[in-house]
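Appendix B, example 12.
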Amino acid sequence: MPKILSMRITDLAEAVAPGCRMELIGIHPGEKVHEVLVAEDEARHTLEFDDKYIIRPMFQWWGRDSWKDGKPLSEGFQFASETNSQWLSPAARKSLIGESFHA
């Protein structure tokens, strides 16, 4: 799982259409507010690297020595959009939007 930056949907709307009118209507049944990329129960067998997390399979026969440089995660760790400490900057959002319109 790559360590990706988080972004709010309202920030994306502002990057696409600066100054646009937004109306908050609340959450719909079944709609997610945050994306969980490494759940707390997966963290027990996940290793952290500089740029990614590797969720190791729980099979005994799987080579656990394949990822020797990874660090185990702390108890209760979760990688989610709401707990991510790294957010996409306004300049980076504009850059991504500009790139996608020119692709």
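Residues 9-20+32-102 form one domain. The helical segments are 9-16, 40-43, 90-102.
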